[in-house]
From TrEMBL:
Residues annotated as signal peptide: none
Pfam hit, one: HD_5
Organism field: Pseudohongiella spirulinae
This protein's name: Phosphohydrolase
HD-GYP domain span: 302-522
SUPFAM superfamilies on file: GAF domain-like (SSF55781), HD-domain/PDEase-like (SSF109604)
Gene Ontology molecular function terms on file: phosphoric diester hydrolase activity
Length: 547
């Protein structure tokens, strides 16, 4: 019998182990702590931790440990070999499997304490004897304890093998050992349930953020996989910057929690687009609303051609002249004139190039041509709204539509600020809501300057632009090669749009190349301009702090 002081020390150690279990969130480590703690408290040479499978029909080996044999199996670093087959709780005929100790303990919901397995007639220890023969070992005493969660359900079992006494001899597990093991099993089961609940909530939240991102990507073929690629690129930049002591961000370091927070923000960075009207998000031409208005204009031009024919026929009839087959169709010159006009309007409608003053004037001039509608009313070829859309200088969006698109950031911030993020995710709204801000304060939605933005928010700005430039899904442009995309980013840095230090890191650490190898076509991966590489090195020297 242990002395009072020894018993007190064991109770203190049990409490210490229990506190450690309640604080552990990594399930693999938690399982190791449970089994190690049980072995420590009872003096067991070896042990196995079983977990009940999802169907509650088998016990699977989670951990196998044996100090004398230097065995430690289980977890990502040392997976359980296939030879450790799951233990069925029921036999093929459906009867309870009471011959296996672990199955019996789980089925009956009580501890099984065996002093000598080789003299125990009630259980099948053939597998144990085979193990002993192969490893020159003798498994004698067994203590198998079921683990119940807070609802009383058995979720696992601890099986301890060979208690070693103070003299190094194998002996049986005492009643005190059983009490300690049962107490630890109870604490371990609660800790394991809590950790799994936290992990389940964590997985649910992650899945929810990805469902939102995937829904936004699915909403528009124009953005393709934008919401899935930006997080990957953002994390590439963050990993390159973390602890790199790079000029301008010398003190930037990230913990595992910081990475998770940034990843969450990146997945949610465009969540406000979920309320952006579909026709604005999807607008691939200037005249596209529900359908592309250029088709209506083409039909009006057909009417103009018929008007010209009718005018010609009407004149000849008034003069009493003979009609010919040529009078029933427009001339080759007229057809060429109308075709050139339609081609010009179609080209203007794509939004692929910057519109010059001359082209805008030509659109207004073309719009003054007229046709006769079904009521006999003369109407201009182009309405004022169509002239305004076709005269958009760059891209396909009008100022009003561009504002609607930009408002997705307002919606993003409003949505995220309404969520009760826990402390370790409190920066998600700021990170996600800042990727359209500019270093000079001329961005949106808040007009923040560089010094008002966190480093992660500035990273996301680079990731968002670079992904958009190189993306293959945008119908209004071709996916850019690296040289072109990085040249544009370089100009955006010079215009105080993007962060210069992070862009220098992006170039120096070749983050762009890592991303390109993962996501771009081989045709897009070309040689980047040397001037960009030289600029990045000069930026480092300029930003370098004096000793």
């Amino acid at each position: 019998m242990k002395s009072d002081q020894s018993l007190l020390n064991l109770v203190k150690r049990l409490n210490t182990i229990g506190i450690a279990l309640s604080a552990e969130r990594n399930i693999d480590e938690l399982l190791h702590q449970i089994l190690r703690g049980a072995r420590e408290l009872t003096g067991a040479d070896g042990g196995t931790l079983y977990r009940l499978d999802a169907e509650r029909t088998h016990l699977t080996f989670a951990l196998v440990q044996n100090e004398a044999l230097a065995i430690s199996l289980g977890g990502p670093d040392a997976p359980i070999p296939d030879r450790f087959s799951p233990i069925p709780l029921r036999l093929p005929d459906g009867t309870p499997n009471m011959r296996m100790v672990a199955a019996c303990a789980v089925l009956e919901g009580k501890t099984v304490n065996i002093a000598n397995a080789y003299n125990e007639p009630g259980f099948d220890f053939s597998g144990t004897r085979q193990f002993d023969t192969l490893n020159n070992y003798r498994s004698t005493s067994f203590l198998t304890v079921p683990m119940r969660n807070h609802e009383g359900d058995i979720i696992a079992a601890i099986q301890l093998i060979n208690k070693i006494d103070d003299k190094g001899n194998t002996t049986h597990f005492s009643e005190q050992d059983q009490d300690l093991a049962e107490s630890l099993a109870s604490q371990g089961a609660i800790a394991l349930t809590n950790a799994e609940l936290i992990q389940d909530l964590h997985n649910l939240f992650d899945s929810f953020t990805r469902v939102i991102a995937n829904a936004i990507d699915a909403k528009s073929a124009q953005t393709g996989a934008h919401c899935r690629r930006v997080p990957d690129l953002t994390m590439m930049i963050a990993k390159a910057a973390d602890g790199a002591a790079f000029p301008g961000i010398e003190d930037f370091v990230m913990t595992e929690s910081d990475y998770y927070e940034l990843s969450t923000a990146a997945w949610l960075h465009d969540c406000g687009k979920i309320v952006t009207p579909h026709h604005v998000v999807e607008k691939s031409t200037k005249l596209e609303l529900i359908t592309d208005g250029i088709n209506i204009i083409a039909e009006r031009i057909e009417i103009i051609a018929r008007d010209w024919i009718l005018v010609r026929l009407s004149r000849k009839l008034r003069r009493g002249e003979q009609l010919t087959e040529e009078d029933l169709v427009i001339s080759a010159d007229e057809q060429q004139q109308l075709q050139q006009m339609l081609t010009f309007l179609k080209t203007s409608n794509t939004g692929g190039e910057f519109m010059s003053d001359e082209e805008v004037a030509k659109i207004r001039e073309t719009g003054q041509m007229s046709y006769t509608d079904i009521r006999g009313v003369r109407r201009p070829l182009l309405t004022d709204e169509e002239i305004a859309f076709l005269s958009i200088r760059k891209g396909t969006l009008s100022e009003a539509e561009r504002q609607i698109m930009q408002d997705h950031m307002v919606h993003t911030i409003n949505m995220l600020e309404q969520l009760p993020f826990p402390r370790h995710l409190r920066n998600v709204p700021e990170y996600a809501g800042g990727h359209h801000e500019r270093m000079d304060g001329k961005g949106y939605p808040k007009g923040l300057r560089r010094e008002q933005m966190s480093v992660p928010a500035r990273m996301m700005g680079i990731a968002d632009v670079f992904e958009a430039l190189t993306a293959p899904e945008r119908s209004y442009k071709k996916p850019m090669p690296l040289s072109q995309a990085l040249s544009i980013l370089m100009r955006m840095v010079e215009q105080n749009h993007l962060d210069p230090d992070l862009f220098a890191l992006f170039i120096d650490k070749q983050v762009y190349l890592d991303y390109a190898r993962a996501y771009l076509s081989q045709q897009q991966i070309d040689q980047i301009p040397q001037e960009i590489v030289d600029w990045a090195k000069q930026q480092q020297r300029t930003t370098m702090r004096p000793e």
